[in-house]
Structures are given as C-alpha cells and as structure tokens.
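Researcher: Let's try something more involved. This one mixes different molecule types, so please make sure each is placed in the same coordinate frame as the others.
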Amino acid sequence: MHAIGVDIGGTKIAVGVVDESGRILAKVRRETTADDVASIDRAIADACNELTQEHQVGAIGLAAAGFVSPDRTSVQFAPNIAWREYPLAERVAKLVEVDVPVVVENDANAAGWAEFRFGAGRAATDMIMLTVGTGLGGAVVVDRELVRGKWGVAAEVGHMRVVPGGHYCGCGHEGCWEQYASGSALVRDARQAAIAQPARARHLLELAGGDAESIAGPHVTEAAQAGDPLALELLATLGRWIGEGAASVAALLDPELFVIGGGVGAAGDLLLLPVRKAYQAQLSALGHRPEAQIELAEHGNEAGIVGAADLARR
Amino acid sequence: MHAIGVDIGGTKIAVGVVDESGRILAKVRRETTADDVASIDRAIADACNELTQEHQVGAIGLAAAGFVSPDRTSVQFAPNIAWREYPLAERVAKLVEVDVPVVVENDANAAGWAEFRFGAGRAATDMIMLTVGTGLGGAVVVDRELVRGKWGVAAEVGHMRVVPGGHYCGCGHEGCWEQYASGSALVRDARQAAIAQPARARHLLELAGGDAESIAGPHVTEAAQAGDPLALELLATLGRWIGEGAASVAALLDPELFVIGGGVGAAGDLLLLPVRKAYQAQLSALGHRPEAQIELAEHGNEAGIVGAADLARR
Amino acid sequence: MHAIGVDIGGTKIAVGVVDESGRILAKVRRETTADDVASIDRAIADACNELTQEHQVGAIGLAAAGFVSPDRTSVQFAPNIAWREYPLAERVAKLVEVDVPVVVENDANAAGWAEFRFGAGRAATDMIMLTVGTGLGGAVVVDRELVRGKWGVAAEVGHMRVVPGGHYCGCGHEGCWEQYASGSALVRDARQAAIAQPARARHLLELAGGDAESIAGPHVTEAAQAGDPLALELLATLGRWIGEGAASVAALLDPELFVIGGGVGAAGDLLLLPVRKAYQAQLSALGHRPEAQIELAEHGNEAGIVGAADLARR
Amino acid sequence: MHAIGVDIGGTKIAVGVVDESGRILAKVRRETTADDVASIDRAIADACNELTQEHQVGAIGLAAAGFVSPDRTSVQFAPNIAWREYPLAERVAKLVEVDVPVVVENDANAAGWAEFRFGAGRAATDMIMLTVGTGLGGAVVVDRELVRGKWGVAAEVGHMRVVPGGHYCGCGHEGCWEQYASGSALVRDARQAAIAQPARARHLLELAGGDAESIAGPHVTEAAQAGDPLALELLATLGRWIGEGAASVAALLDPELFVIGGGVGAAGDLLLLPVRKAYQAQLSALGHRPEAQIELAEHGNEAGIVGAADLARR
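Model: All components are placed in one shared frame. Result:
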C-alpha cells in the first residue's frame, strides 16, 4: 500500500507519495503562513489532492514539529506554528478528497522511523535517532515499536540535562543536552573561539569572510576536512558531547544502534569517530555487554515524508 | 496460574508461590554461598521442590542481580555472585521436579514489574521504577511492556551521568546518578556533615551513638521526622537529585508515573515532596504537557519474588 | 591632606573632595559622552577646578571601569568608554589648575579600598570586597595593601570559573562566577521562574506589574521581605553561590573579612545568612582555622570617590 | 648570612646550610617518628647542632606540612604529624646550641619561596607556585612578598572548588582542584582507563607489570614519551585542569608567572603545553592583558630546605 507523507515546516510543506519500500514516487511543495492554521490545512489538503489524482494511497501521515497527542490526532503545542490543542488530522481529513486514515506524528519521530524502516536502522530492533541540527531532536524505537510516551512527548532528548548549572536553554532550563550537542552549539563555540583567539581561528575566519558572526556549520566542516586544528577540535568537542550523552541514554534503554542525523553529518568520520570514542569511554559496564553501533543517517531532508507515510499505514 | 518467584541474593535466596493477583501464598528461604554457583542452583531447586509439594505452579521466575540475557536464560555477568555467561535457567530446570518454564529476570526489573502489575503502578501503562537503595536501580515499562533492551541490560538508570567530572562511581565512571540519588549518597553526605560541622549534626550524632561513621539512613529519617534541620536538608538534597534526574528520564520517555522504591521511602513525604518539587522545576515544557505522578512503592522486599513469578508466566 | 576622588561612569562623572577620615566635604557632577574621550578629560578637569576654588587638595584619584596600568597612569582597555591604552592621568593633569599628583585606579579597587579604610573593613588587615551588581567585581587587600597584580588587572573575581561548561558569560567564557553571583543572575533566575512556574511567582509578578520581563532585583528583595517563598529561595541561591565562591577565594588568600557590596545588599540578612552558611559549608579545614567574617558594605555609591581620593594620596 | 633550612617530613627530616645565593653548603638527614613530637624536636635540634659545628648560621627555618601560625612560631594543625597548636619554634630553639631566630613556615610556601628567590621565579615580582604531587599545594607571592593570609593558611590552592558536585576530596568537600590536578588524579585516571579499556591501555599495563593497580605516575610519563596515545591523553587532561584552574587564579591575582612543581614535571612539555593551551583558552580578557608565563620548577626535593632557610633570615 502506498501512503502520503507530509512534512510541515514553518513556511512550507513538502508532500510525497511513498511506497512500501520507502521510496518517494512523487512529490509536491506548497508555501504556507505559520500564523494562519486554516491555510496550512488547505495547503496540505490541496497537495494531497493533487497527488491522489495520479496515485492511489491508503493513508496520510502528517509530520509536525510539536507535541502530538498520543492518539495521533492533534497537535497540543507547537513552537513555530500557531497550533494549540489543534485537531489537525480531522481538519485535513475533511479537506482531502480520498477517504483514508489521516494521522499526525511528531516530525523527529517520523524522521527517526524512516531511518529505522528504510535507512541506517533497517536491520535493527532497538534504535535511538539523534538529529543534531539547530537543536537536538530524536526518536526512540524499542523492540520494533516507536516510543511515543504516555502523552506523545517522548524522545525530547535535547532537553535531558547534562550539565547542572550549565548553559541556559531556550526551554528555560540549564544544561540541556542540545546546548552542547547541536549545530547551534558548534557554531556558538566556533564564533566564540574566533573572537577570543583570532589567530587560531584564521582559517575559519577566512572561510566566513573575516567576520566571526558569519561563521556557520559548513565552514567548520570545510576547515576540518582541510585539516584545520581548531575546526577538528570543535567537531571533536561536539562529538564528545553527543557520545557521552548517548552513553547515558544507553544506560537507560540498551539500544543496539544510534543513528546520527542532521546537517553535521556532513563531517562524516571527523564527527563520528569522536562520538564513538566518547561513547565507549562513558558506557557503563563496557566489556560486560555488547556495544551499540553508532552510524550516520542515510536519509536527508525527505526522512520526515517517508517516516510519516510509513507510520500512517501501520 | 500460580508461579514461583525466586529472589537470589548474595548469601540467601527467598522463594515464594505467587498467585495471579500478586499475593504470596507460601514462602521459604535458603542460605547460599556466593562463590559456589552450583550450590546456588541446588538451593533454588530445593526450595522450589519443597513448595511444589503443596502448590501447583505453571512457571518459575528467577530474579538475579546482574546482566541477564535478553532471551531470559542466562546471567551474563553479576557483580556479587560468580556467574559469567551462566545458563542459570537451564541449570535450575534440570534440578526441579516439575516440568515448567524457568526464566531469569534482572532483579530490579522484577521488582519494578511487581509494582507495575500489583503495586503503585497497577493503573499505569508507562512507568519508571527508581529503587533508591545502596545504589540506584530501576525498571522501565513502556506501553505495558517491560523494556529489557537489545542485550537485556536496559534500566541501569543509576549509571546515567548527571554531573560531568562528578563523584567517582564503583562502575569506574564519574558523576553517575547513583552517586547522588541513593541511600549510600545520603549516608555519605550525612557522615561528611557530621565530621565537618558537628554542631549542626548534634542530633544525628546522638542517634548514631556519637560516631559519625555509624550514621545510617534510618538515623537521617528519624532525625528528619523529629524536625532536625540538617536531616531535612539531607533528605531534600537527595530528593532534589532524584527529581532532577527523573525529569531527564521524562524528557526521553514521557512516562505517566515514577515509583520510588528502596529503604529511603521510609521518609515518606519528607523525601517525596522535594522529589516532586525538583521534578517540576526541571521538567521540560512544563505547562504544555501533563506531568507524571511520583509515588512511593507499595511492595517492600518481596517485590522481587512477586515480579519474577509474574514475568515467568507471561 | 584632602584629596579629590573622581568616579567616572559611562555617561556621568561624580567628583568629591575627601578628607583624611573618608568624609566627602564637597561634591559636583558632570554629564559626559562615552565616545568622546577628550570631553571626558575636560569634564573631569572642569569639576576638579571648580572644587579646588574652595578646597585645598594634595592629590587627585580617578576611578575608572577598565584595566588600569600598574603604574596608575593609563587605562589599557575599558568596556564602556573608548579608552585604549589611554594616558588618562597625564591628560587630566594637563587640564587641572593645581599641580598635584593625578593617579588612575580601577573603580572596583577604589570602592573596595574605601570599605577597607573607612567602612566595613576598617579594622581588618586582609579583606576581600565582592561587589554584587550587574556583574561581580571585587578588590583584594593583603596585609593592608591593595593587590593590583602584575599588570593592574587583579581582582577580576567575577571571571573565576565556578561551573565547567556553565552559563556563557559576556567575556566569552563559560561558567564565570558572575553568571551565578550577581544581580543579573538573580533577575535572570527570577524571570525564568516566573515564566516556567507562574503560580509560584504570583507575588513577584504582581510587584512587576504582571510581566515576567519587568521583574527587577528590588522586586525580589521586597517579596522576600514579605516572606514570599520563591523570592527567599532566589536570594538563598544567590547567597549560596556567593558563599561557595568565597570559600574558594579563602582557600587561596585566607582573608579575615569579606565585604559584600552592590544593590543586593538591600536584602540584608536574607542574603547574608545564606552566604555565611554556604561559606562555612564549603570552607576547607573548617574547625582547624579561624573563619573570615562576612559583612555588608557600609558605603554606597560614593565608595568610588572616597577610595580613589584616598589611594591618590598614598 | 648563611641560614639553616629544615624540611620536616612524616618519617624523616632533611637539614641543610643555605648560603645567600640559595646553594646548600652542607646537608644531613635524620629519621623520625610522626607520633612522637618531642623526638622530632630533638632530631631537628641534633641535626642543626651538627651543622653549626662547622657552619656559622644566622637563622633557622623549619618547613612543616600543616597550618602554621601567622607569627611563624607554631604549627596549628598538621595532617601527618601529631602537632596541635604546637610551639615548634620555641621547642627547637631551646634545644639548639646557637642563639639565632627560629621560625616555622608552611612547607609548600617554603618550596615556592625557593623558586621565587633562586629558581624559575627569580626574575618575577608576582608568582604563583603550583606543586602537583600527591595533592596540589601552592605558594603565592604578591609584589615580592609571600602571602601567608590572616591566619597563616593562604595558598591552599588544591582546595579551591573547580567542579560543583565533583570528586570527593580527603578534606571532606566535593570538586576540589587537587582531585583533578594532582599526581593522584593522574594515577587514578590511568588505572581507571586500564580497567575500563585494557586494549587502549596495553602499553601502560606492560610498564606496570600487567596490573592496573600498579600503574604509577612515572609509567604514564614514560609511555607518553614513547608516544602512547592514552598516556598523552592522560597528561593532556591533567594539564587542562591545571591550566584552567590557573586561569581562575589569574583572574583573582594577575600574576606574571606560574611555576609548576612536583613529580609530574618530569613529563616536561607533554604536560606544559596542555597547561599553557588551557590557560590561554580560559584566561579572561585574553588579548587585552599580558599573559603570565607558565614554567616548570627548577628546584626539586631540596626546595623546602632552601626556601625555609631564606625565609628565616628575612
């Protein structure tokens, strides 16, 4: 059975028809306005209706950034779109021309599920996805099932506390993991290094046109790939925080696999090796237990579409 | 169906027949020697054989402190008994006179399962057990299923890291949660306070016969119940660490209930209120999500027997 | 001998004639522009010239926020005024009509010196001043001498690191003491509490007109004085960080007295008692050594004038 | 003027005649018993009397591990010898045959003073000594004067707190600097690595005869000099903690020089370069201030004798 997956961003939506092997057969996009939730409903439905002209689908899955109700019908709260206890599935179902189940999933869960079913985790039964982007998102798969939690808000890994009294987080707490293990943390530290020690940061500054505040993640990756010591150190620090936190997650859930997604994956082994090293160094009972693998995600931006579609047909 | 549960300690075993409502119908004990694994097999079987004289049982569950294989047949490693990749279920099955399934479970998982099925968690679907004793153990129930992990070693909550560069743990790492949230931590801090500030610790010292090194957990509880400020502060600190760590666990798993077990539960609300306060203060997205309940365990020492028996018949 | 003390702020200067007992006999003010350093020179000189019409003085001391050269002639760097290796003493000396020595001192050092000579430290020989304001400044007196350091930048206590991986500081580092022990930290935590737990912060929010972002330090003090539990807790947390850091300073310098200055002093014992408690709890070798006193500053805003004048005549 | 310096250890004393350039002209040793303080007095006097047969001296300085009164007459408390408010100078003065001043100094202060006067700090005016041995000791020189503190117990650098909730220290507190920046910390971490990751620690284990618990500091240095990655990492970690803590000390005292003493100095640049790197990375206002030098001590075990003698004649 084919299904439609919808990845709903703040200003645009991407909609695709996904087959049972996780391939996207067709895809359309729509622009949206974050403040106008009814227009988002319409844009989603419109895109679905366009695709169902040519494709037969059995379900529609909507991937939304926010807290999704455990019955997969509503978005309870979203940081970037004006949804508050919003019955998104029902609203979209009313506007689409086909009569198929419509379900909502958290976008990080959807992306993680795509990796689990069709990507780096396809051979695994117990997997943790860590999406290292602006923040640190995740998904948890236990015994082949996605863990949504009692109220649908599980896998908020970025808000596990890793440093008491640590960096303030946008969530209002201190020391959240995503303040140390995210692309934003990488860029923050890179800019800081460039200001405090410009000589060491010469290479990074050149790539950024001379301005510390213009340094972005890809500059760090590029400099690291050229062997720049500061950039390598920045990636190693990021990797260390990812790996050390992963070891705490493993103490709780004993997964067989961690999948690292997000833009920083472009750094490849320059990131992955420090992650693995820190994971091993911190893993409780190392030597008395098998160790989880740590791999890069295989899907990119389309993971949300694929995962939402696949979850919808289950 | 009745089942037998066996709680295997370092120097003794407790064995009981458990009915489907979690009641123990009969119970026997045996002394054992930690170094002699064959004698432990025999003691277990002997106790089971005694009980099956008068009770019909359909399964036997063995609760062992250690890493249990995910197929529930073997103990991979145990800290206090000389089991190394030891096929405990098979060895015991050969020695018992009834022909029923024999399974091994981690003891903290068994105790947590007893709470989930017949105790504080009986109405829950998603529960975390935190057993605050010498160390900090736990059990994880997701969507009514016990989470054992890929290799059987999930729920080692005590070894999640909560302080980078923090207290050394017996496990060889720094900053493990159990170094802050355990009876041992409580006693360590109480003794330290008594040495550094004997005037503040006068009440505690009196209860302990004047010797700081003799202060034990129940002294702290007793002093706190009598209103002693230092003892109250020690319990509040313990509670804070439990609650703050629980908030990190909740970020990952979104449970509906935490159950706090172990001897410190004797302190009741003097412990529980600080736990809840810290949990709320640290919980990510407070106000946008329901909050998990935090309650004391209802079962005491017999939880291992009850949980092992119940898991064996599943 | 009387001396003039000048307290140079970003937008105004306060100038006073100070007698040998630390009293201000006359005082004038001038508005200034932070970007125009020559105009600041002229404003200082103009005020001095006005005062020397009626008062005979033997020295002029200039208190400046910034790094002052150890020979007390120049400001090497200032955060708020455009001084860079600026020969401030010479420039002012050229413009004043009396022929007396002109020296520059760091403003926190000047304020600390005023406390040492004429305030809470007048009976002490070894004193640490901690000025808990927007940031955390200080002054160090060892054996009756102000410690300026090799290059004039000693006593930057606010930038001692107290939490590895802690809050980012404006200085570019993590975990600086002033991120935990300053009025800014108090307000930050109060606002955060008001957002995360509005019910607990009801009293604070009322005082601030209902808006978390309007909460200021005096609101916390006022609420605490009325017995509000959250406000008391916020002051206790601030006090704990001050006291714990002071214990580290004491390990290094073994002073007989800490003097706490800055606006938070308005909270009196509500701040001071937690400071002392934390200091005792953290002090190394408590019981084998006398303990430093911890007292509030006696001088207010005029401490800079008094201290600069007195340092100038030495 | 020549002077005698006495270095009083737990089980032996070393006594030397020191000339004005810091050279030891003659030296004798005596065995002692830590429990019998009178016998220590006699052993000191006996050794002094032997040396004064052939050398004319003007003063005697006694270097003692412990808290020394600020008037340099008594040991208030010592961890390893049974001195409690013990008038050591007077007792020794009564037993020596020459009539010269006898003074007591803290041993770390004496060693630091030797470096300041005749060693790595001979050209400096403001110096911090950090002695990285079993613990972390130190000495503080401000403007050419030794800082003893109000009650004689300054420069206990090892008990500045660097990690809240960090490793327990023998002093009873958590997170003391010496738990991270000492030879003991190096060995602890090396042994731990050897237990947790024996493959990585193969080289270290070989040097220690195969037993993790036999790993000692010199093994780490030797392995590092042979290029062993784990040993290099262990030294880098030690160096990082030294350097980061030194930056906090510099924020307070702005010294021109740090001198690193103790056995770990044998590692040379393998330790020193990480110290300097971490110092720079953590130093507040880097770029707006000169940076202190960080050098190895030049004196070895005899620094206590030399420093005590020189302090006695001042």
